[in-house]
Amino acid sequence: MFLAALAYFRFRFAASPWLLANFASSITSLSQLTNLLVMIPLTQLQLHASYPSRIIASLFLNIAGFTLLALSTVFFLDISTGLYFSFVMLVVFTSGVACALSQNGTFAYAAGFGRSEYIQAVMAGQGLAGVLPCVAQIASVLGSGPSPESALIFFLTATGVSILALGAFLSLVRNRNQEDNRVTKVSGMGEDQEDDESELQEGLAQETRKTISLWTLFIKLRWVALSVFTCFAVTMSFPVFTQKIFSVYSSSSDSPLLQPGCFIPLAFLIWNIGDLVGRILTLIPQLPILRHPQTLLLHSFIRAGWIPLYLLCNINNKGAVVKSDLFYLIIVQFLFGTSNGYLGSMCMMEAGNWVEIEEREASGGFMGLMLCAGLTVGSLLSFLAA
User: Fold this and answer.
1) Model-level pTM?
2) Whole-Å CA distances, 9 to 50, 61, 87, 250
3) Cα separation of 251 and 253, whole Å?
């Protein structure tokens, strides 16, 4: 979400060369490190965990954070660069806490149903959440340039989406509670017997919930856990390069879409569209070998081969080895995003097949932790690229 507003942050940090070079890595590193440190105790607190409450708390934190960022585009335009950077880091920290609550709560809640398609739906929803901010940022920049006005529209859009998500989730929880009450009053007979038995199995799993150590979960899920860790660690190399790569026609074209204020969000948009496409592709039945945990880990390592391709592009407008925006946007960004969405979703969906029914919720939270750990390690390593 923050990375989609890179053009605006470049505008705010233009007075500090160090911040201009390192703010993207600082944002991703603080966000993911906070996410990981909060996620670890959340993953361990299983016995009396209320996963819906964690999701709701995360949405309230996001609403507060994005509202503050929106206000900062109106009331804090004259503060120093260093002070504004500190403010942004505070909001990033809050967002990291919210992300941990959301990741842990959402994956655990969805895994508790025992349906891999629910995990796929969560992954697809996260992919869509990456697309919408980029669209909003491009539209606002085309309307008024990388200015406080465009950032205001962008952050207000994020606030509105969070409010809609909160309302939708509260409706889901209410409907599920009503369904649980119905199941307790219905004897599993007739044409609904199979569905009722599945729901009763889920209720039994919740009643027998116990604390499962992270090491036990790792032993059972080691291949898919290492796969999702590696996949997202490799992925975090792309934001550092993306915020520095310009169109090869930026100096010779007057098109606003090819100027950095729009081209950088466009590159993020293309990557996120690829990511969303990859997550949706997991709905297509695959060969068994493609779902094998060791195969997923191998493919996660192979993805690192995309990173050198960024060096062929127009970094810092110093010229490109391959002088083509299509090469950068399609071959590099789109396909790299597609591989992330596909592999990441496959890993998360497969986890439930390797644990017992009563371990599903814990496995969902654990896989969210491994995903977060991969993002954290990748974001810290991104300083090397920066």
Assistant:
1) 0.77
2) 36, 21, 12, 20
3) 6
